[in-house]
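mind reviewing both lines:
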Amino acid sequence: MILRESVGIALGAIRANKLRSFLTLLGTIIGVAAVIAVLSFVEGLNRYVSEKLLAAGSNVFWVDKYGIITSQEAWEDAMKRRDITPEDADVLREGVPHASMVVAMASGNTNVRFEEKIVRSIELRGRSAGFESVDDITVVSGRAFNETDDIRRRLVCVIAPEVADELFDRKDPIGQTVRVGAQSYEVLGVTERKGSVLGQNQDRYVWIPIRTFLKHHTDRRNVDLAIKSESQAALPLAQQEARNILRARRHLRPGQADDFSITTSDNVMDLYRNLTGGIFVVTIGVASIALLVGGIVIMNIMLVSVTERTREIGIRKALGARRRDVLSQFLVESTTLSLAGGLIGILLGTGIALLVGAISPLPAAVSMPAVIMGIAMSSIIGIFFGSYPAARAARLDPIEALRYE
C-alpha cells in the first residue's frame, strides 16, 4: 500500500471518530503546545536580554563592590570589601588607555515636584558625563550634563519623557526648575521614550551628576563603574588595565584576591541562562509527561483499531499483502495521528505565546527550531508508540484473522 493511501486511511479514521480522535490526540496537543509556548517565551527573553546587554555595546564591562552574588557566604564576603568611589573612576579614566569611556553610577528613589504637580517614587540615577553611551539613552530635547556640571556639582538634571509629561503637560521643560527630593534642579534635557518592558516602566527616572548625587546622599559612598573599551578586541586589555590600577590603589599583594568585581555581558548572560535553564528543564519535563501519556493513549487506540480491523487484515493478507505492508500501514496511521496532534499543538502553543506577548509585558518569539522540535517530537511519539500495535497486526495469521468475529 502506498504512503498516500495509508495517510488517507488514517485521516478517514480520524474523521469517522472525531471525539475519540480528539481525546486520543489531547495528550500530544497539550505536550507539544506546552513545549512551543515555553520555547517561545525563553527565546523572547533571550533576545530581550541580549538586546539590552548589547545595546550599550558588547565592549562594556562593569566594576563594582559586590559582583554576582550566588550564596550567603559570597554576600558576607562582599560586604567586607572597600567601596568603589568616583575618584576610582577618575583614575581609571586617565589610566586605562584602551577605555573610551568610564562612567560612575549610583541610584536611589525620590519624588519630583513642579509647582503643584508631583511624580512619586521615580528612580534617581546619579551618573558621570557620558552616561548615554553605556545606558543606551538618547537625549532628544535639550542636552545631557557634561563633565563640568559633574565636577562643580551643579544642580542640573535630565528627565525621562513620562516625568516630563506628568509635570509639564504641553509646556517645554527645558530650563524649568523642578524639586528633586529636597533640592531644586534645572532641567537640561529630556530623553527618548522607551515604553514598558517585562512590566517595568522605562520612562520614569531622573538623571543627575554623580557628584551632585553623592553630595546630597551622604549615606551613599559606594558607586558602580561602567567601562567601555575602544573596541571589542580591546576589551580584555581594558579589563586587565582596570584590574591592575584598582589592585595598585588598594595595595593588594600578588596572589591576594581582588576586593572588587569585574563583570562582562557574557557573565550576565551565563547567569541568566543558568537561571532560566532550570525553569526550562522543569517545564519541558512536565510537557514530556503529557507527551508520554499521549503516546500511551495512541498505542491503546491503535490496539483497539487492530482488534476492530482483524478481518480486514486477514483479507488483505489473503490477497497477497506482506507483513511489512501491514506493519507500514499501521505505523503510518499512528504517526499521522500523532503528527496531527503535534501540528494542532504547534498552532495552539504559537497562538498562546503570541497572545500572551501581545497582552502582557512578557516577550515571546516563535523560532523555527521550536517548530521543528514540535514536529519531530510528535513524529517520534507516533512511531515509537505505534510500533507494538503495528507489529501485532503484522503478525496476525490470515486464516485466524478471517475467522475472527
